[in-house]
Each structure stands twice: as structure tokens, then as C-alpha cells.
Amino acid sequence: MRKEYLPTIGLEIHIELKTRSKMFCSCKNDSQEKEPNVNICPVCLGHPGTLPVVNKEAVRKVIKTGIALNCKIAPWSFFERKNYFYPDLPKGYQISQYQKPLCENGFLIIFGKKIRIRRIHLEEDTARLVHPQGADYSLLDFNRAGIPLMELVTEPDMVSAQEAKKFAQELQLILRYLDVSNADMEKGQMRVEANISLSQKLKVKSKEWGTKVEIKNLNSFRAVERAIEYEIERQKEILDSGGEVIQETKGWDDKRAKTITQRIKEEAHDYRYFPEPDLPPLEIDTYYLEEIKQEVPELPQEKRIRFLQEYGIAETKIETLISNKELTEYFEKSSSELIRWVQDKNLKDKKGKLLEMLANYLIGDGIGLLKGKPLKEKLYPITPENFAEFITIIEEKNLTSRMAKILLEQMFKTSKDPSDILKEKELVQVSDETEIQKLAERIIQDNPKPVKDFQSGKENAIQFLVGQMMKITKGKVNPDKAREILIKLLKGSK
Ligand SMILES: [Zn+2]
Questions:
Q1: Nearest to residue 429, comparing CAs of 463, 406, 411, 462?
Q2: DSSP 388
Q3: In this structure, are 210 and 240 located in the same domain?
Q4: How far apart are CA 337 and CA 321, in angstroms?
Q5: Per-residue pLDDT tens for 25-48?
Q6: Which residues, 6 or more positions from 434, have their beta carbon under 8 angstroms from its beta carbon?
Q7: Rounded distance, CA 266 to CA 288, Å?
Q8: How many Å lie between the centroid of ligand 1 and the Cα of residue 39?
Q9: Domain residues for 122?
Q10: What is the number of structural domains in the chain?
Q11: In this structure, are 474 and 345 located in the same domain?
């Protein structure tokens, strides 16, 4: 019989903070700089005799994150040296925090479940090691050395790959809302490590946990999910065949879709942490803390709840809207304009429908207009007010989706008011029935084959005829109306 196991998953997440300068020197903080070794100085190169100075902004951003994640903020804290040798660490130690992290005992709720956060601390990033393919040497780029790095450690409260992925996604969103980091995983601004162990369900009560394996190099949400799923299966197979899981650090190979052993077992005491003598302790007074609290904006979860109550649009749409800070801001501005239009134009009973339409257009066509450009630039030519007016015009003039699209494109190109474009472009819908009938007669005459198909029972042939109608009128006819009239004529002349 196959035994039942309960996975236990904890995450350690490193986040590069968005600050102007590095953690302990005034070099530029730019991890994406392509030219190697340009943002460097004696401090971040670890030259003897240099002294570090704490970056105030980095401390502030860690505390801000801690507040947003319901942590207790330490009234005082200090830095320590984490000693180990590696070529990317010129001092022979990394300045980090061990005994007194800035933030502790927080939580984040995902899928309605509380995931506890053990700690968030501040440290410095290491240099980047580059291994040119086929070469028997490695290269070092110190642009990244000394960039402020925040490390967040969760309790092992997750039980599936999906939960871990969701946690990382929600955290990324919060970090972006707080503007503490761009947290782009592909760019290495947010790096996830997962600790995974399996326990036999029967033994969970007696707290007999399995041996944990750590997986590094998870640089996409997909990698987080796949690597954890893979590791759970791997450990299951070992345990089922009577083997023993060994404590080790593994890397995730995305191409081969497997985890690979990197090193076996290491403990905190291996690093010989000791207080950094060159930096004074940090004291966080209550005024300072209050000030940062005021800077924490409305967070994604609060937004979800408020959007649902205020706008009543579908939850999946809310999710898309709030997944992007700029899009959310645009939607909020535009929807308050829309509500104003709705009142002015006496469309009150259509409020819900129009808000839904606004969300649809923003998520669909609004974003699709200019591919590959950041959203701010994309929507910039259209003011939120004009976007709101555009929605009311669709409703009032009963525009077809094709006409609406043309109108939106023109608004985008010219930044003009939609009502002005409408007048200029004569984007007026053909609604006169006799006119539509005339057009329909012409189309029937010009397309004998589809007409015959339709009359011999191939009902789909009507699509082609409606399409023709849209084509010659440049989308100015309501397709439902066109279909109705075409069918009437075809059935009548049978
Ligand atoms: Zn420097």
C-alpha cells in the first residue's frame, strides 16, 4: 500500500530593494547594468580600511514591507557579519542580520489561509559570477555587489506547490504596491528558495517531520511550482521504496525539469555570525515608525474587497485590474468619471453594466492597443475622463464592437475627445431599416453561392453574408440587425 504523505513547504525569498544607491556605499544601485564593473568603489569591492555607511532608504523599505505583512518591527536592531568564502564576496563575509532582524512574526493570507512570516531582514547582495560557455575560467561583475537585499523567511505553513506559487505572486504584488522593489523574477530582483519535506500523515500529530531539502535558482513562478511538484514526487518515491531523504541544497534545472544536488547540509553555526563592529545599532523610534505606517498604501487584498463592493464587477476581472498598479489607478480615475457621466446623462440604471464594460475595455482593447509598451505610455494619450465618455457613447449610440474599436484607436492616435472624433469620422451607425434592407438585397444579389448554401440548409453561410455587410459598411451596421434582415429576406425569397 502506498503511504500517504503531507508536504511541508517553507520559502526564503530574496528581494533587491529599489533605492538610488547601494546598501553601504554611494554607488548606483542598478542590477540591470550591462557594462560590467562600472558601479563600483573601494567599499563594495571590499578593500581593506574602508567603512560601510547604512542606506537609510533601504531600512525604511524593509520596515514598510514588515508593516504591510503584519510583522512586529524591532525597536532596535543591528548588523552582523556572515562569514564564508566565495569569489563573489570580496570581504570574506556578507553584512547581514541574524539575531535581530528588523521585522518578525508577520503573516500573509493566501487562498484564505494564513501563512506565517518568521522574519524579514536586511543584507547586501553579492557580486555576479559569470561562467562563459566552454571557458575554463569565470568572470566577476561587482555591479550587483552591495545592492540592498531584503530576505523574507516564512514558516513551513504551505502544503502544496500551488500555495507556494500563490504566496510568491501575492508578495510580488504587495512589493510593487509598496514600491520597495520591482520584484521581477526573470531579472533576479526576486529570488525564491523553497524548503520541502514530506511527513507521513500518521506521524504529523507527533511532530515527526521529514528531512528537508532546499531548492535554489527558482527564477519564475512557473519554476517555483514545477520544482516543488517535482521534489514532492522525488521524495515520495524515495520514501515509498524504503529509502531515506538526505538534507541537501539542490538547484532547479528548468530545461531538464529536475532538481540537481549542489551541496550537502549546512547550518547557521557554520557561518560564525558576529556583530559588525563598523556599524552602529539601529534604533527604530515610534515617530519614525508612525511616519512609515502612513506611507503604506491600500494593499491588493483591501482593494479586492473594496472593488467588489464599490463596482460589483466579476472577481476575475478585479484580479486582472489590481495585478497592475498603474492599470488600477487608471481604472479608478476612469470609473469615478464614468459614475459622473452616468449621473449627467441619466444612465443610472446602466451603472453596473457600464462599469463592467469599462473593465472589459481596459483589460481587452485598452491594453491591446500598443503591444510591448509599458501601460503608462499605452494609456497616456487617452485621459481617464475620455475613456469614461467613450463607454457612455458605446451605450448611447449603440455602437458595434467594430465601431467602438475604430473610435478607441482614433482616440489613442489623436488624444481627442471621443464625441469630436465621432462627428469627424461620421462613425454613425446605420440604423435605418430600409437602408439596411437595401444593402442586404445588394449582398444577396452579389453572393449567389452562399445564398444557395443557406437556402439548401447550411445555416452557417449566413455568417459570410453578415461579414460582407460589415465589410462594405465598415462596421457601421449592428451585426444582429443585419443578420435578422438577411434571414428575413432569404427565407422570404425561397
Ligand atoms: Zn560602492
A1: 406
A2: H
A3: yes
A4: 17
A5: 999 999 999 999 999 999 999 999
A6: none
A7: 38
A8: 7
A9: 5-294
A10: 3
A11: no
- Do 279 and 317 sit in the same domain of this protein? no
Question: The C-alpha cell of 44 is what?
Answer: 563594495
Q: Give distance in angstroms: CA of 42 to centre of ligand 1.
A: 6
Q: Which residue positions in the chain have pLDDT lower than 50?
A: 370-372
Q: Is the Cβ–Cβ distance between 274 and 80 less than 8 Å?
A: yes
Separation of 429 CA from ligand 1 center, angstroms?
A: 64
Under DSSP, is residue 173 helix (H, G, I), strand (E, B) or coil? Answer: helix
According to the model, what pLDDT value does residue 402 have?
79
Q: Is residue 144 a contact partner of residue 31, using CB atoms and an 8 Å limit?
A: yes
**Domain end residue (candidates: 425, 441, 462):** 425
* 287 and 302 together in one domain: no
Asked which of 294, 315, 342 is the last residue of a domain, the reply is: 294
Q: Cell numbers for 268, please give them.
A: 547557521
Shared domain for 92 and 182, answered yes or no, is yes
User: 33 CA to middle of ligand 1, Å?
Assistant: 14
> How far, in Å, is the centroid of ligand 1 from the Cα of 53?
11
Q: What's the gap in Å between 26 CA and the centre of ligand 1? A: 6
With a pLDDT cut of 90, the percent of the chain lying above it is: 54
How far away, in angstroms, is 256 Cα from ligand 1 center? 38
User: Residue 400 Cα, ligand 1 centroid: separation in angstroms?
Assistant: 59
CB 154 within 8 A of CB 167: yes
pLDDT of residue 371: 47
Per-residue confidence (pLDDT) for residue 436, from 0 to 100:
81
Q: What is the pLDDT of residue 379?
A: 59
Q: How far is the CA of 482 from the centre of ligand 1 (A)?
A: 69
Calpha distance 188→305 (Å, rounded): 31
18 and 104 together in one domain:
yes
Residues 306 and 287 placed together within one structural domain of the fold: no
pLDDT of 265 reads 63
* Separation of CA 200 and ligand 1 centre (Å): 50
Asked whether residue 83 falls in the same domain as residue 44, the answer is yes
Inter-CA distances, 23 with 29, 96, 189, 415, Å? 8, 11, 15, 43
pLDDT recorded at residue 13: 98
CA distances, 212 to each of 196, 249, 452 (Å): 5, 9, 71
State how far the Cα of 117 lies from the Cα of 105, in Å rounded to an integer.
Answer: 6
Q: What is the DSSP letter of 364?
A: I
Query: Residue 460: which CATH number?
Result: 1.10.10.410
Q: With b meaning 16 or more CB within 10 Å and e meaning fewer, what string describes 52-89?
A: bebbebbbbbbbbbbbbbebebbeebbbbbbeeeeebb
Residues 6+ apart with CB under 8 A from 312: 352, 355
